[in-house]
Amino acid sequence: MPLLGCIADDFTGATDLAAMLVENGMRTVQLIGVPQADQPLPEADALVIALKSRTAPVAEAVAASRAALAALTRAGCRRFFFKYCSTFDSTDAGNIGPVADALLADLGAGFALACPAFPANARSVYQGHLFVGSRLLNESGMENHPLTPMRDADLVRVLARQTSGEVGLVPYAVVEEGAEAIRAAMATLAREGRRYAIVDAVNERHLRAIGAAAAEHELITGGSGVAMGLPANFRRQGRLPERADPAALADVPGLPAILAGSCSRATLGQIAHARAHLPVFDLDPQAHPDAASLAGAALAWAKDHLGARPVLIAASAPPERVAALQARLGRDPMGRDLAGALIEAALAEIAEGLRDLGVRRLVVAGGETSGAVVSRLGVRALRIGVQIDPGVPWTRAEGDGPSLLLALKSGNFGAPDFFLKAFATLPEAKASV
Ligand code: ADP
To answer: For ligand 1, atom 25, which residue shows the shortest CA distance?
Structure first.
């Protein structure tokens, strides 16, 4: 029976949280979207439902989050975590406040803490103000975010604009005193009628103390940082056994491959690094501006190159080439970038074709690209394994079709040798299928 049920407002955020829970001793499975009522759920200590609700219309985000809460409750969870970005990505309309309000109401609870701090990623909260490195949030570049521009670093104010509830603060001096002091401060705020408390944290000791202080809270909200303290609560209560290896994944023998659809700088560097070591095929969307022929060319190449060494198939291109293709293909009436859509469709088709050719170990670079691949492969659940680089674990994917090992990398994550390192962390690929 799962102990902790988590709702994440985007896909890579869900993986990040799941990896944090595994690292702290919980066997964790990430579910893609809200599971059907009759979908059997895998055995795990924590379940993380990945939504796409961060920038969805408020009513949609609230409805999806409530459905996720209901599914997690049905699965047996009694403690819940609402995960949002460590830069508190939201607007005055939401969706952090409205979703948290709805979850509290459904749980019949009156209070939740809110802590996006993640010191390992240089996100800290001091006197309620969120810092990215040494800069206030509203001077960190996040003030220019296209969808969720963050123009105020004072999270008490930011959250207060998104909820009818009152928002208080547990300041640094209290957090520094430890779990008991934090627990008492939160109890006082709740008694005074506050619905939320922003809780300061500038280091991991603070995050673990906050986790301990919230052991009895039904709902906790925050970034993946504050989740690091939660497994210890279940352990102290005797409900979470010491797991020999919470990241253990059953092996899936089969061929290795890499698909890159991210044009982020880190991914471009990782592809450049891989060229010296691996067979690489570059998609040519200028020559084949339709998904089927792009995929056909790549799969014909792959047939001749698949083997013990991973193959890399890349759409990724530097900014001027991306801009040229975008200008050539334009946008659909909904404003969607047709170049991006073409390449996502092609890479999804290639992923399916590779699976038919016996690929069972697949690395995908790019957030949107990963979403397209996972949806085409009919993946419904990812059991979280060992991290390759921070925030990017190997996972075992279950759903329609055969299981496979998947590593889904958000574009900017990972060291330059990420692709090689990913396969080096797996047991030797056994004979091809
Ligand atoms: P990241 O995680 O780096 O943001 P994503 O996969 O989320 O990566 O987004 C990259 C987008 O760029 C996808 O929509 C992908 O289809 C698109 N894309 C990839 N290669 C090209 C290219 N050569 N020209 C235009 N768009 C591209």
So the answer is: 322
Mutate to test the pocket of ligand 1, among 263, 321, 392, 410 (most ligand atoms within 8 A of CB): 263
* Cα 361 to averaged position of ligand 1 atoms, centre (Å): 22
pTM: 0.92
- Per-residue pLDDT of 198-257, as tens digits, reads 999 999 999 999 999 999 999 999 999 999 999 999 999 999 999 999 999 999 999 999
The CA 268 to ligand 1 mean position distance, Å, reads 11
Matching residue, tokens 């970038």: 337
Query: Which atom from ligand 1 is nearest to the alpha carbon of 316?
Result: 20
Q: Which atom of ligand 1 is nearest to the CA of 262?
A: 8
51 alpha carbon to ligand 1 midpoint, in Å? 20
**Considering only CA atoms, which of 378, 411, 390, 384 is closest in space to residue 259?**
411
**What residues have CB less than 8 Å from 170, skipping those under 6 apart?**
113, 182, 185, 186, 189, 197, 198, 199, 200
Q: What is the pLDDT of residues 74-111, one digit of tens each?
A: 999 999 999 999 999 999 999 999 999 999 999 999 99
Ligand 1 closest atom vs CA 261: 19
Task: For each of the domains in the chain, give its residue range(s) and CATH number, in order of start.
Answer: 4-236 (3.40.50.10840), 255-432 (3.40.980.20)
Which among 308, 317, 422, 403 is positioned nearest to 363, based on CA atoms? 422
3-state secondary structure at position 65: helix
